[in-house]
Amino acid sequence: MPELPEVEALAYHLREHAVGRTVTRVDVASLSVLKTFDPQWTALHGLEVTAAGRHGKHLDIGVGTELHLVVHLARAGWLRWSDTLSPVPPKQGRGPLALRVHLGGPGFDLTEAGTKKGLAVWIVRDPAEVSSIARLGPDALELDRAGLEQALAGRTTRLKNALTDQSIIAGIGNAYSDEILHLARLSPYANPAKLPAEALDRLAEAVHTVLTDATDRSVGQDAARLKGEKRSGLRVHGRTGLPCPVCGDSVREISFADKAFQYCATCQTGGKPLADRRMSKLLK
């Protein structure tokens, strides 16, 4: 899933390549991707791309003086830039293509792999009209130590869940939360409301370090290389069974119905493996 660093890099790429160009046509290959019906996508035709930014993990493309094309890439969505787009309209419901934006020769595709669809596109006059943006907590890159403490105050959910809850902190997903917790030497199951001051210090520093480093690595890369760049910078996420780069212990995994997370027991939980309910059920 694209998270804050990758979305920031995509916004940068669009600022460099799309801003100043005119939308000549929008092709909708999957009507289900559109979550708004007024304005219609044809309202973008003939307007200039004026800005590109983000709100948490939402990509915000300013078009003309009043409209925004807002995109949430979900788990398997992606933005693919092309210097030369095919002028032939795509067939609806065929392949991963969901929406194509022509910019007078070049342009970009919004695609989504797999059968579970979550890619979402809104055309709005104000990004705050998108309910998932209106609910966002403070941006993770803008949080200092005091802001992090305030965001976590009174939260009794697991720390891993708090970090990935976009209404608490915006921009962190499954992968970077694993990296942050590993760097901060904190258990994914820790209680956010009971973190001692020293642990909060480590967590605030880890949030800043992990996201800043990932953003610095990503910004300026071609959109096609961002996924590989993300994977290359991960130390524990997606590395189940491999040695922890800090202590050499095997990276462990906790699995759920639709996702998994990784951690190092030696670095994060005092050497004690976390309970994996999925495995416990299998062993009964």
From TrEMBL:
GO molecular function: 8-oxo-7,8-dihydroguanine DNA N-glycosylase activity; damaged DNA binding; DNA-(apurinic or apyrimidinic site) endonuclease activity; lyase activity; zinc ion binding
Reported cofactor(s): Zn(2+)
Record keywords: DNA damage, DNA repair, DNA-binding, Glycosidase, Hydrolase, Lyase, Metal-binding, Multifunctional enzyme, Zinc, Zinc-finger
Pfam families: Fapy_DNA_glyco, H2TH, zf-FPG_IleRS
GO biological process: base-excision repair
Family: Belongs to the FPG family.
Protein name listed in UniProt: Formamidopyrimidine-DNA glycosylase
Organism per entry: Amycolatopsis cihanbeyliensis
